[in-house]
């Protein structure tokens, strides 16, 4: 009796996990094909007259599985996700101090305008790079991500400069 109930519980739990994985894979495939829906919400903002039929349900929490299916929940979920990913305050950044008096070259400075210009000149008919982000998508949201990428490049170059000097 005990073995059969635990086997049934195992099967039902396994079935729930398998169905959740199938749902997430299906949502991921759908988002890869309909990325313009996210670009519309990010660029234009959300208004009650717009419908988000092209944006599937978004995963809010994995354990237990909670999805944002409503038109009011989807922008909130996207906003919360992007604020978690892209929020770095000046106090949280690592400051690298180095004595660059004997340097043979000046450190490179990456500006937002340079990154924006390069992103806007991407060729949208090319295939995705190693990060699997399509150039058409990068070009569409270039004005939004240019400052973030410039900051990331600047931090990366300052770390490299520091490592090569020491």
Automatic annotation (TrEMBL):
The keyword Membrane applies. The chain crosses the membrane at residues 144-164. The keyword Transmembrane helix applies. Keywords: Membrane, Transmembrane, Transmembrane helix. This is Uncharacterized protein. It comes from Schistosoma haematobium. The lineage of its organism: Eukaryota, Metazoa, Spiralia, Lophotrochozoa, Platyhelminthes.
């Amino acid at each position: 009796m005990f073995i059969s109930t635990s086997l049934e519980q195992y099967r039902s739990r396994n079935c729930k996990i398998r169905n959740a994985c199938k749902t997430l894979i299906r949502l991921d495939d759908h988002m890869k094909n309909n990325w313009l829906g996210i670009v519309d919400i990010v660029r234009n903002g959300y208004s009650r007259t717009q419908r988000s039929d092209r944006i599937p349900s978004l995963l809010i929490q994995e354990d237990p599985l909670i999805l944002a299916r409503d038109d009011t929940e989807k922008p909130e979920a996207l906003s919360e996700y992007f604020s978690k990913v892209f929020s770095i305050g000046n106090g949280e950044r690592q400051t690298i101090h180095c004595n660059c008096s004997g340097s043979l070259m000046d450190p490179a400075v990456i500006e937002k305008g340079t990154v924006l210009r390069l992103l806007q000149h991407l060729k949208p008919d090319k295939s995705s790079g190693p990060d699997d982000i399509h150039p058409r998508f990068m070009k569409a949201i270039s004005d939004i991500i240019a400052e973030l990428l410039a900051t990331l490049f600047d931090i990366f170059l300052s770390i490299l400069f520091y490592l090569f000097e020491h």
